[in-house]
């Protein structure tokens, strides 16, 4: 069972090289991108904390780049 978990945690086995290159380039871009001017969470006095604006921005960039 442990060996199967180790195999499933290696994305290179199940992913094509072009996708690995794409996601590694996106990952390096996000490491160098400064999102400190964007608030992490929306300011609200009532209700839930909400979703992270930075995470939503990153997801939007990846979604548009995948097309």
From TrEMBL:
<protein>
    <submittedName>
        <fullName>Transposase</fullName>
    </submittedName>
</protein>
